[in-house]
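Quick one, tokens below:
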């Protein structure tokens, strides 16, 4: 039986021998008893995982970058207020249906607001729409990239440039050479594994699809 999985607990429970493939190459084949979680992950990602998320002190505390005051929408949200400062990572959590997704979509301009204000670096989002949000540096990484974030049939370069086509437009036409250079820079910086910029994004691995979405 050949069992393919990313779930390590299942691998340790089921397998007698484990083979690791990375980027189309054979990395190792060992009896499962010779592996620990850490050594198996190291073979999978190609590096040690010590101190993967080191605590960084003093990163936050800068000026207010995003201010939301008494934000309300027709769906879910009722007078939500918070601030996020430069250098700060602010997380929201809750049960399904608690309004986390609706809050993100309202901030980016996807869902219309009925009351309240959103400001970026002291500049109020007016009008409150996605175009203004993008101009002020607001982006949304959707939780459902296949139906809301990416267009699977289109190539990597078109998916990566969708949110900023205006940067490549000249007299109403897209400067494709400039677009390709910019996307190639993203591919290099984010180490997106793709045969070319013209590969359909649906054919990439899930992790590389996510990198395209981030870029």
């Amino acid at each position: 039986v050949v069992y393919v999985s990313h779930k390590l607990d299942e691998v340790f429970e089921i397998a007698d021998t484990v083979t690791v493939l990375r980027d189309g190459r054979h990395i190792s084949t060992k009896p499962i008893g010779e592996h620990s979680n850490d050594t198996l992950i190291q073979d999978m990602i190609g590096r040690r995982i010590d101190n993967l998320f080191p605590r960084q002190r003093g990163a936050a505390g800068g000026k207010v970058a995003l201010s939301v005051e008494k934000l309300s929408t027709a769906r879910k949200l009722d007078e939500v207020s918070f601030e996020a400062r430069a250098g700060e990572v602010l997380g929201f959590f809750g049960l399904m249906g608690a309004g986390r997704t609706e809050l993100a979509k309202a901030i980016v301009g996807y869902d219309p607001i009925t009351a309240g204000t959103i400001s970026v670096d002291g500049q109020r989002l007016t009008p409150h729409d996605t175009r203004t949000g993008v101009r002020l540096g607001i982006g949304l990484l959707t939780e459902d990239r296949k139906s809301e974030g990416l267009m699977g049939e289109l190539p990597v370069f078109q998916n990566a440039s969708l949110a900023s086509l205006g940067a490549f437009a000249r007299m109403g036409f897209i400067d494709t050479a400039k677009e390709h250079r910019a996307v190639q820079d993203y591919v290099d910086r984010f180490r997106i594994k793709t045969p070319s910029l013209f590969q359909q994004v649906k054919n990439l691995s899930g992790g590389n699809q996510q990198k395209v979405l981030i870029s």
